[in-house]
Amino acid sequence: MNLLLVVPYLPHEKIPHAGGQVVHQELRHLSKWHRITLIAAAHSSDGLAIESLRPYCAEIHTVKQTKTLGEKLWRVVQSFPIALLHPSVLKPRIRRSYDLTRTVHRLLREKPFDLIQIEFTDTARFFRQPLPLPSVLVAIDVLEKPARRRLESSHGIARWLRKTDYRRTVRLEEHIVRLFDRVLTLSKHDADLLARLYPKTSVSVLTYGLTRQTTYKNEPRGKDLLFVGAMERMVNVQSVMFTVEKLLPRLWREFPELTFTIVGGNPAPAVQELPKRDSRIRVMGFVPEVETYLASAYAFVAPLFVGGGIIIKIVEALAAGVPVVTTSVGNEGVEATPGEELLQEETPDGLTEACLKLLRDPDFRDRIGEQGRQFALRKYSWEAATKFLNQQYEELVSAIKTR
Q1: HEC sequence for the chain
Q2: Are residues 107 and 245 in the same domain?
Q3: Which domain covers residue 120, as residue numbers?
Q4: pLDDT score recorded for residue 69
Q5: Residue 218 pLDDT greater than 80, yes or no
Q6: Is residue 141 domain-shared with residue 23, that is, in the same domain?
Q7: Where residue 71 falls among pLDDT bands split at 50, 70, 90?
């Protein structure tokens, strides 16, 4: 099948965030079955990364992603004429969606495709009408969910602003999902939510495979708690700061040798300052091999309170056999069994007690880790994901042909 795949970043093997790693694996597996034309945003320094994707793509088309301050300023200047109609394009993320949309329309005029698949709902914000071919949207996150949680946690004037933002988000998401023949979410929870919010949408659940090899064995070296995530994202910064301020003081009273390791690219300034507060906190930044840290961690701690979709970093930790301590938000898309495949709590006291239970009882820690690992290996398979996607494609193409 001649497939047009649209991604808001370049999905190469070394991309430093979990969403990109998932799409990289998806591209590799789909390329065995289809002729893929990739449209993606890329930096001017991404030449080697683009070349690494050519074995999986018939064609690669990129839109420029700004990186340096000079590039960003020049892009703002270039965006002013467009901003007269779409003021939001002055934001780099929004301008990226605009440029991707223009490239899609250009290629659709120039070449025949059997089907188009777009990754991430926000990528399609500038599409105005249904596309002239079978179309799939992979809604890796449901936009309404984090907007609702931000609204629920706000007060005063901030709540009024959040309410406006929430309504705008719901209108945008409803417009986007109804343009597509099929919307794929990464969990049943998100599929049910989309179907309830936007009843006329055709929704199915896509369970991705694992993003990393899991042939290594988790063997903790001391008592080290681990967090992994893109550290420029506020939801991850908040999770780390919550751990430092609400959990670690009590954990250190009983286990003063405990360390906390934070792995993830572009750490915010507040995160970079943490080792100055206590040398038992380590901020590693981007690392090429996260497996090294997963293999030696005693537990993975992710107190997440805002988010949407499946939390891929939690799936990776489970697959590595690392016991996970998280919240209902962290487990929402993963759908592991609390108390058996991970530990789930909602309050500082509950999360602290869950960590202490693992620290005090190594046998319990090993049992939770192994049950979590078996769950992840059983549920997340690329062979099953590819088969499911191929079935979706065939169904949509056949439906168009019989109209």
Answers
A1: CEEEEEECCCCCCCCCCHHHHHHHHHHHHHCCCCEEEEEEEECCCCHHHHHHHHHHCCEEEEEECCCCHHHHHHHHHHHHHHHCCCHHHHCHHHHHHHHHHHHHHHHHHHCCCCEEEEECHHHHCCCCCCCCCCEEEEECCCCHHHHHHHHHCCCHHHHHHHHHHHHHHHHHHHHHHCCCCEEEECCHHHHHHHHHHCCCCCEEECCCCCCCCCCCCCCCCCCEEEEECCCCCHHHHHHHHHHHHHHHHHHHHHCCCCEEEEECCCCCHHHHCHHHHCCCEEEEECCCCCHHHHHHCCEEEECCCCCCCCCHHHHHHHHCCCCEEECHHHHCCCCCCECCCEEECCCHHHHHHHHHHHHHCHHHHHHHHHHHHHHHHHHCCHHHHHHHHHHHHHHHHHHHHCC
A2: no
A3: 2-209+381-401
A4: 47
A5: no
A6: yes
A7: very low
% the chain with pLDDT above 70 = 90
In the chain, how many domains are there? 2
Q: Is residue 132 part of a domain?
A: yes
- pLDDT tens, position by position, 351-364: 999 999 999 999 99
- Residue 141 and residue 201 share a domain: yes
pLDDT tens per residue, range 75-96: 444 444 544 454 454 566 778 8
Please report, for the domain that includes residue 25, its CATH number: 3.40.50.2000
- Are 234 and 318 in the same domain? yes
pLDDT confidence of residue 95? 83
pLDDT confidence of residue 72: 46
